[in-house]
Amino acid sequence: MSTPSSTGSLACVGIGITLGSHITPLARSHIEKADVVFAAVSDGVVELWLKEMHPDVRSLQPLYAEGKHRMETYRGMVDAMLTEVRAGKRVCGVFYGHPGIFAWAPHRAIKVAREEGYPAHMEPGISSEDCLYADLGIDPGAAGCLHFETTQFMVYRRNVDPSAWLILWQVGLAGEQTGHRFATGPAYRQVLVDVLARDYPADHEVIIYCAATLPFQSPRMERIPLSQLPLADLTAAETLAVPPARKLEADSEIQARLTALDLVPA
Amino acid sequence: MPSIIKFLERLGTDAQLRHASQEELAKALEESQVDAALGAAIIAHSTSADELYALLGLRPMFHTQENPGPWPLPPGVAGDVVEKEKQKASPAEQAAL
Asked: Which of these is catalytic: A90, A96, A188, A200?
């Protein structure tokens, strides 16, 4: 760690998913006490709400553009925040949901700030995953729950456990390898269906899920057969939840070893 | 704070309003003096907020924030993958990355 040349600092906070419902008192305090606030939220109304909390909220939306590589956008986010930290400002980066989940820039900005000697930390927020458990009534402790980013799940060989829930994030970008598109189409989703068909029957019921962003909305929870996924109406915000397709399989050898241990006097 | 934003914040923080009926919402909107057209968009109470966005002049936002890669990066765009490769490489190889 080097000695910082100014008294700047960085806090990356999550604003939650649903406007008004999920922001933590500590996240709000970071926002209100910052010198400058950078906003990477998912909704224009949420951004208007954030602007009511602080007079200097700078949207990171202009860094995005159709056809621009996403990594270039994320680098721009990091640079924007760190420029103000280096200028001695108390900076707050506000990200929708949880700032450390499916978000490259906050992790990177905190890492670089710390390497340069500036105080930097992350405050968690309520994520889409948290909302999914509540809305779909899933307890990940019951049968287990695997999470993957959809394209990563497709292009690498992963070990799927059909006795657990499988959650695929950003299913609307299924198979997106270029880094500069924000959606893919039915043909790409058909490839995903083919990958899933290695472990699930075509008529297996899956759930398209999207949490509510505004407090008058309802979450999207649409149940369809797996084979119908290519034709579904999807954006980058949707998630695919695949329920277990088979029962948990007992490992009798391990069970026997554990039972034997129970019989050993303490 | 504009009344619509103030109302939405209240809606998100009030346990009764958050799951209120259309009638209860309409009453709360009237009391809050929210613009009638905006109020109607809220009462529609659906998964889509397109009407509200249109009335407020808002466009859909980009919100993808991750890059699980390793995808090919265009020249001049550095990412974690490139940096990790640089750390593993010899000085001569680093210069080429």
From this structure: A96
The pLDDT assigned to A179 comes to: 84
Confidence class for position B81, pLDDT limits 50, 70, 90: very low
The CATH class of A9-126 is: alpha beta
Architecture of the CATH domain A129-242: 2-Layer Sandwich (3.30)
The confidence score (pLDDT) of residue B96 equals 35
Nearest CA in chain B to A211: B47
For residue A256, give both structure tokens: 């026997």
- Full strand arrangement of the beta sheet holding A145-149: A145-149, A165-169, A239-242, A205-210, A220-225
* Predicted-complex ipTM score: 0.87
Q: Residue B8: which of B44, B38, B48 has the closest Cα?
A: B38
Q: Is the pLDDT of residue A247 over 90?
A: yes
Strand, helix or coil at A208? strand
User: How many angstroms separate the CA atoms of B40 and B6, rounded?
Assistant: 16
Structure tokens at A251: 């490992």
Between CA A252 and CA A82 the distance in angstroms is 55
Q: CB–CB of B42/B64 below 8 Å?
A: no
Q: How far apart are CA B42 and CA B35, in angstroms?
A: 11
Q: Is B16 on the interface with A (CB under 8 A)?
A: no
Would you kindly state where each structural domain of chain A is located, as residue ranges? 9-126, 129-242
A70 catalytic? Reply is yes
Task: Answer yes or no: are the C-beta atoms of A105 and A131 closer than 8 Å.
Answer: no
Flag whether residue B20 sits within 8 Å of chain A, measured between CB atoms.
Answer: no
Q: How far is CA A140 from the centre of its chain?
A: 17
Q: Are A184 and A190 in contact (CB under 8 A)?
A: no
Question: CA of B63: which chain A residue's CA is closest?
Answer: A42
